[in-house]
Specification:
Length: about 450
């Protein structure tokens, strides 16, 4: 391939890729985008009532540990409106819209907290189920979910036709459950629950708004024009300050969460590799990523301190230089969290039973399908002769049977062959025989048929 041909191929390839990934083709007009986003910013009237109803639904779902109910609450929540408004307002330098969106979101957050707190105060159920506990400790993945969910949401909002992406973003980013979990923490005076859940809620809305801001800037949506140039400069400064104040903590937050997740992954790998003994088992592992502490609880034969010191010396090589490793054995006096240990065993048993159940369900389904085919075959063997005698009066009796043989590669026939024995009162003509054969193939959906006429 010469250089000219190679250059042309590369240019064509770039053109194809650009065309495939282009967002300009179905992009809505700037006026439509502006009107669409502004319409969902205000949290009053209908939106406010829907928010309170959604909060009640989500709180009930968390209280009874129902994932389906929680998803339903996320679908009807109107919280995405003001969050998108924050990112859009910052993107087009519209300080009044940015302030309006912040006000709406703050008010909606307070209403959500008050509503969920009220529910959990009067609810007779005060157990923190798994759905509640899952919203009390944010991870780095929540940052990525908020960011990419926000990107999907704002791209959908800038299209000519509205799609079902926004409800999907509401489910993926899960704004409602952490807000309700914060209300659960307030109602019970559990500040760890409150701050953890509100922390997750903050991550979600900050990164959704940040994603909206990025897309609006990239799409070059028309910015707001100010008559007074001094006012325009002041508005841009305010917006820049808000963006920086929001972005710096969120960036630090994302960096810290990613660091904690990396520490957990490295610590888990280290424990699995270093504590692999024949007569001693790891009963429990507690990893505190914030304080860089790894606690390992052992059951079985006692491990000498010299061997444990050798294991600790390997921390630096595994990227855990600042980590503290504490090992507790039977003689240390440190009690093992038996409830967590039992929970782990029960979880393993449940997962194994679920796998076995799925295999059994699949096998039952296969048997049902085979039984259905067998019943359909029996009906076919009785129905075909009766229909045949009606269509061809010369036929006195007909019997349909089945045989199996090697498949013919030449004419692509099935290995299954249908044999039709015909007892005719009068001799059938060649044309009638062909008609019967064609009808039989069409009726049975099988091209491999054999007629035996007597």
């Amino acid at each position: 391939m010469d250089s000219v041909t190679e250059h042309r191929t590369w240019v064509n390839l770039k053109a194809i890729i650009k065309d495939r990934f282009s967002l300009a083709e179905d992009s809505a007009d700037d006026e439509v985008i502006d009107e669409r986003i502004r319409a969902d910013v205000d949290m009053r009237g209908t939106n406010l009532w829907i928010l309170m109803f959604a909060i009640f639904v989500a709180s009930i779902g968390l209280n009874v540990n129902s994932t389906a109910v929680i998803i339903g609450a996320m679908l009807i929540s109107p919280l995405m409106g003001p969050i998108m408004g924050i990112g859009y307002g910052a993107g087009i330098n519209d300080f009044s819209l940015l302030r309006r969106s912040f006000t709406s979101l703050t008010f909606a957050t307070l209403v959500g907290l008050s509503t969920s707190t009220l529910y959990f105060l009067i609810s007779p159920l005060d157990t923190a189920h798994s759905e509640l506990l899952a919203r009390t400790s944010p991870t780095a993945w929540d940052v990525l979910i908020g960011l990419f969910g926000g990107l999907a949401g704002i791209v959908a909002m800038t299209r000519k036709e509205k799609s079902n992406v926004i409800p999907g973003v509401a489910i993926a980013t899960a704004l409602m459950p952490p807000l309700c979990t914060a209300g659960f923490g307030l109602a019970g005076g559990n500040w760890e629950f409150f701050f953890g859940a509100f922390y997750l809620y903050t991550i979600n809305f900050v990164f959704i708004a940040l994603a909206s801001f990025i897309v609006v800037r990239l799409f070059n949506v028309t910015e707001k024009k100010y008559v007074d140039s001094a006012l325009a400069v002041r508005a841009q400064r305010y917006i820049a300050a808000v963006v920086i104040i929001t972005l710096l903590p969120s960036s630090y937050l994302a960096y810290r969460l990613v660091g904690e997740e990396v520490f957990k992954a490295k610590a888990t790998h280290f424990v699995n590799d270093a504590f692999n003994f024949k007569t001693t088992n790891v009963a429990q592992v507690k990893i505190d990523a914030k304080n860089k502490e790894i606690k390992v609880f052992l059951i079985g034969e006692y491990i000498p301190q010299e061997q444990l010191r050798a294991i600790r010396a390997r921390l630096g090589k595994e990227g855990l230089k600042k980590a503290v490793l504490n090992v507790y054995q039977n003689t240390n006096g440190q009690s093992i969290d038996l409830s967590s240990l039992k929970t782990g065993i029960i979880t393993d048993l449940y997962q194994n039973s679920q796998i076995a159940l799925q295999a059994q369900t699949k096998e039952i389904q296969t048997l049902k399908e085979q039984l259905k085919k067998s019943e359909e075959g029996r009906e076919l063997f009785s129905a075909v002769p009766a229909e045949l005698k009606t269509l061809f009066p010369k036929i006195g009796e007909a019997i349909l049977s089945k045989s199996f043989g090697p498949a013919s590669a030449e004419d692509n026939r099935s290995a299954e062959r249908l044999i039709l024995n015909i007892y005719a009162s009068k001799k059938l003509t060649l044309k009638e025989r062909k008609q019967i054969e064609s009808w039989l193939k069409l009726r049975t959906k099988n091209d491999n048929v054999l007629l035996l006429i007597r």
